[in-house]
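Encode chain A's predicted structure.
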Amino acid sequence: MFIVNVEGAIYKNAKWLLIRRSEKEEHAGGGLSLVGGKVEKDEIKTNILEETLKREVAEEVGIEVSNLRYVNSSLFETDTGLTVIDIVFLCEHQSGEPYAKCLDEVSDVFWMSTQEILDRADIPVYLKENIKLADKILQGN
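Encoded structure for chain A:
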């Protein structure tokens, strides 16, 4: 068995939206990440990945996103040993001002340029790689 997780590389005005995960989170508490969450079983419908991401973004940071495009998928194991399939989408900011809406999951929000993300030592390599891939999509490569 595995968890299916979706994340949004949310882009606006040449910057990416990152969150600091709450210390209460079981996996990667206190770390910087993209906004997202897991697919829930009771949400059987079409476009489940895209709809889950839109719901998670609204719940966690209070904004709406649009124009979702596939970036990458990966498999990893959480700090507690659960297997996760993670799918990243490039998203455009549609409306709202992001804030830490769900404090049990998000403690802060940041807008950062691609270069700022790549230069920070406290950002995981996999996140940097996802931003580089999303940036290539934006550039049409």
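The longest strand covers residues 64-77.
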